[in-house]
Amino acid sequence: MSVTAAKGFTAAGIAAGIKGNGNPDLALVVNTGPRRAAAGVFTSNRVKAAPVVWSQQVLADGELTAVVLNSGGANACTGPQGFQDTHATAEKVAEVLSAQGTDVGAGEIAVASTGLIGILLPMDKLLPGVEKAAAELSEHGGEKAAIAIKTTDTVHKTSVVTKDGPGGAWTVGGMAKGAGMLAPGLATMLVVLTTDADVDSAGLDSALRGATRVTFDRVDSDGCMSTNDTVLLLASGSSGVMPEQDAFTAAVREVCDDLARQLIGDAEGASKDIRIEVINAATEDDAVEVGRSIARNNLLKCAIHGEDPNWGRVLSAIGTTAAAFEPDELNVAINGVWVCKNGSVGEDRDLVDMRYREVTVTADLAAGTESAVIWANDLTADYVHENSAYSS
Questions:
Q1: Looking at 188, 194, 215, 321, which residue is catalytic?
Q2: For the chain, where are the E strands, in sequence order?
């Protein structure tokens, strides 16, 4: 049930007419309490969409009552009118929820948008859509909400984990959208996570940042960072259970890791999912830098699409970084075959089997004990086609 798997949440997903094809395009997630703690991480892109600016502001006090999300338009690079439209959306959500008996102001409503940049949203459709979504709020509405935030996604993405500790059971659930513009920036897409654990905003913030750092921030499908990336974590406290912080962080990470893997699996045009593991690095930062460089090497991505274990392109990518290593000590394995040893020819490259969807590239820097994993995809003609025709 995605965001409604945790107790204390309702959700809805409807077609408001924002998308020309009539598909669902507006989602609403409401925290019914008793706690309304929240935390968020956002794109590090300096060009930020109006909903990102708004949601960062309303999260300043660590509380949210609801999140409204639309697909079909990013409301990014839309000037003062775009921010006014975001404010008007939050005001509308507050109005309809207050009419239902929940006393709430616009400052307790986060807004998230996804779609084409540089286009104003059709507010004559979006605002009535908020009323329709509010009327359909349900404890079983999580899946419909996840469907409504899709853009080029071919499937909706949800995840749920339930833990049973000393104080009783509690749940973390979530939904995500993202298939393009997937690159590090803390978030890399739109995500709403919910929990019925009794956790304050500081605990949520710590868990969320700890989880996103090693999950969403290490998805690097196409090297392009969005203007709208948002990940929100809301706690209702309705289970009455106060888990240990480490256990809670681990559960949030589990959900984020699952969703991140689903994002890679649905990336635009991809035919291969590439797990890049950098081992024996001097520092974790070195491992991440090397992993990102390998992930963004278009020559390697093309080679993997063609099922060519071209390890020379891996070494070339490593060599562009500032990481500590000696060129004649580098080792590279592709799908477990060490095709490069000590910076030179290793095992027979014909032993590498690349027929399957997942491809593993292991880069051994022989410089320490730290490691990191980055997920990427191959570069295909379908990716080029989809993104050349996106506006139309």
A1: 188
A2: 9-14, 26-31, 37-42, 66-71, 109-114, 157-165, 168-177, 190-195, 230-235, 273-281, 331-334, 337-341, 344-345, 358-364, 370-377
